[in-house]
């Protein structure tokens, strides 16, 4: 089936960048259509297993590139469905980062001060709350105690979680069947639908072209609901404005494939990709040492043995986020639960005499999996990623019917990035191996290269047209009416979980998109309250818009 329709705004993707745009533009009176590559699942649909065909494999997109692998969401709600709901604000120094450019990467108009009111809006909508120590899981408490033992500080992480609904099942990464995690399925997206937005799952955008009236035509394939390698239809939608929010691993691919029909792309499209400088280390905790050194105890004399109980990141150490420290030496360390599948494959065996990621020695450490503790480092990388020629369809060549693909990204870490990784690895070892508390297993890059769950910066905002694909309003240079509001717009690594920053930037971009729609004859307004009806964040932002 082939068809052509029309809408005021066509939004590609339904994660933070897409959902926020869909709500505000629909609430303002625009006709909004959202195309989402993945399926539409809600609480009762999320399954607690890793079987092929379960919700776990249906809602993830794992793309293996050359030197970098990307893990992201593939469903209505995007990354918010599979994230761990950790929502810190980026440190103030992040907005002054220079990276390898030797000059400020972020637009002069975007600072922590100018972004704070937009952070407030998102925190009100989800909402985001700061956990107390009573909310912290066994793993979080162990990491905090280990930090204290090593002379470091640790803090509960702000989260978008309803503590009254959370059961500590530790399946957050597979979608929350209890609706405790405040994903976009519970706020912006239902509010957008209530205002008339149409969300179409299993619709994968392929390319953009121009229409005779100055708008854009968006071509899509309809994806089979079981085998994502197959399409069962296609179509086109004409729109006055297009908002790309397909994620940092897909948005640049769509734009590169669209070059024959749109015209030349800015130089920075598909360049300067950042993996948010991410590293993982897994420690095997010595239960006796945890009992004696840290004074921890559980029932039956256990100190820990609770890797599987809890939720996502609960505790972080921010001691290395000193603005006075040199760039590429700043990072945060966060306790994290990662599903055993990936952890078992990628955790290297300490002091192994043979291969570090398979064999009898690996089998022995896997037997101790309940005493594992994974620490997630977010460092300052050097934006080394580059996207090569796009695949024929989609953002990757699909290898399996769900989840796994081979993508066009190439990543070669510079010494700046490698130095940051070494320093964060050393800090993890200092904390967790002190006095024999554990043995640390750094995750190997030998199998899938570097890896990230927070891809950023492949179509970033900035002031320099040579190094940024978007202006500070998130509009694609040379292509008026095309905006990018996902993680690809973030200029570089932010040293903390970036979801709140992505969402705040998307909120900040809405007035510019509204102005573009008005210029194209659409009667649309800006100023809708928070999706839950709150108004405090709206008032703060309204003042900025007036100024």
Describe this structure in words.
Helix content is 25%, strand content 20%. The protein is an alpha/beta fold. A hairpin with a 5-residue loop joins strand 17 and strand 18 (404-410). The strands form four sheets. Strands 1, 2, 8, 9, 10, 11 and 21 form a seven-stranded mixed beta sheet that branches. The mean pLDDT is 92. It has helices at residues 16-27, 55-58, 79-82, 112-125, 138-149, 188-194, 251-257, 259-262, 287-294, 340-346, 360-366, 415-432, 499-519, 536-546; strands at 4-12, 32-35, 60-66, 68-73, 129-130, 155-156, 158-159, 198-200, 203-210, 216-223, 231-244, 278-285, 315-317, 332-336, 372-378, 386-387, 397-398, 404-410, 438-442, 450-452, 482-484.
What is this structure, in a nutshell?
The protein is α/β, with parallel strands linked by helices and 547 residues long. The chain is 25% helix and 20% strand.
List keywords for this structure.
547 residues; alpha/beta; seven-stranded mixed sheet; globular
Task: Output the radius of gyration.
Answer: 22 Å
Q: Give the proportion of residues in helices.
A: 10-25%
What would you call the structural class?
Answer: alpha/beta
CATH homologous superfamily caption: FAD/NAD(P)-binding domain
Give the N-terminus to C-terminus distance in angstroms.
Answer: 49 Å
Which shape, going by the Cα principal axes? globular
Strand coverage percent: 15-25%
InterPro entries: Cholesterol_Oxidase (IPR052542), FAD-dep_OxRdtase (IPR006076), FAD/NAD-bd_sf (IPR036188), GMC_OxRdtase_N (IPR000172), GMC_OxRtase_C (IPR007867)
Domain Glucose-methanol-choline oxidoreductase N-terminal: 68-271
Domain Glucose-methanol-choline oxidoreductase C-terminal: 451-506
GO biological process, one term: cholesterol metabolic process
């Amino acid at each position: 089936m082939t068809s052509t329709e029309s809408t005021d705004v066509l939004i590609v993707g339904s994660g933070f960048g897409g959902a926020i745009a869909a709500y505000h533009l629909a609430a303002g009176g625009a006709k909004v259509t959202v195309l989402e590559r993945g399926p539409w699942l809600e609480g009762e649909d999320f399954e607690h297993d890793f079987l092929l065909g379960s919700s776990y494999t249906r809602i993830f997109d794992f793309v293996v590139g050359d030197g970098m692998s990307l893990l992201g969401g593939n469903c209505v709600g995007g990354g918010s469905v599979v994230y761990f709901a950790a929502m810190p604000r980026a440190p103030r120094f992040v907005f002054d980062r220079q990276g390898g450019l030797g000059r400020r990467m972020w637009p002069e108009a975007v600072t922590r001060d100018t972004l704070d009111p937009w952070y407030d809006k998102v925190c009100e909508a989800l909402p985001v709350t700061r956990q107390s120590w009573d909310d912290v899981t066994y793993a979080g408490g162990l990491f905090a105690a280990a930090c204290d033992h090593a002379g470091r500080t640790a803090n509960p992480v702000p989260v978008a979680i309803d503590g009254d609904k959370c059961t500590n099942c530790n399946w957050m990464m597979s979608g929350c069947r209890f609706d405790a995690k405040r994903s976009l399925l519970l706020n912006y997206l239902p509010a957008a639908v209530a205002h008339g937005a149409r969300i179409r799952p299993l619709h994968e955008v392929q390319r953009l072209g121009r229409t005779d009236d100055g708008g854009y035509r968006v071509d899509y394939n309809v994806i089979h609901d079981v085998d994502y390698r197959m399409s069962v239809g296609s179509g086109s939608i004409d729109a006055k404005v297009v908002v790309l929010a397909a994620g940092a691993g897909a948005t640049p691919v769509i734009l590169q494939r669209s070059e024959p029909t749109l015209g030349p792309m800015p130089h920075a499209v598909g360049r300067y990709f950042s993996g948010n400088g991410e590293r993982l280390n897994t420690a095997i905790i010595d239960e006796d040492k945890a009992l004696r050194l840290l004074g921890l105890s559980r029932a039956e004399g256990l100190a820990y043995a609770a890797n599987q109980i809890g939720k996502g990141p609960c505790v972080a150490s921010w001691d290395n986020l000193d603005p006075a420290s040199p760039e590429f030496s700043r990072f945060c360390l966060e306790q994290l639960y990662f599903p055993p599948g990936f952890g078992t494959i990628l955790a290297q065996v300490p002091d192994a005499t043979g291969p570090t990621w398979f064999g009898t020695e690996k089998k022995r450490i896997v037997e101790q999996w309940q005493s594992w503790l994974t620490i997630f480092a977010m460092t300052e990388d050097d934006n080394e990623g580059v996207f090569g020629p796009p695949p024929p369809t989609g953002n990757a060549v699909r290898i399996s019917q769900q989840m796994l693909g081979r993508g066009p990204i190439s990543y070669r870490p510079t010494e700046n990035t490698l130095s940051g990784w070494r320093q964060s690895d050393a800090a993890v070892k200092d904390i967790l191996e002190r006095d024999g508390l554990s043995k640390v297993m750094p995750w190997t890059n030998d199998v899938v290269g570097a890896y990230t769950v927070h891809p950023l910066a492949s179509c970033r905002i900035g002031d320099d047209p040579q190094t940024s694909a978007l202006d500070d309003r998130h509009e694609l240079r040379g292509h008026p009416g095309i905006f990018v509001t996902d993680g690809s717009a973030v200029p570089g690594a932010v040293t903390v979980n970036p979801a709140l920053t992505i969402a705040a930037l998307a909120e900040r971009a809405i007035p510019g998109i509204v102005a573009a729609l008005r210029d194209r004859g659409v009667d649309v307004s800006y100023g809708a309250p928070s999706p839950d009806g709150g108004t405090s964040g709206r008032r703060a932002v309204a003042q900025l818009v007036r100024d």
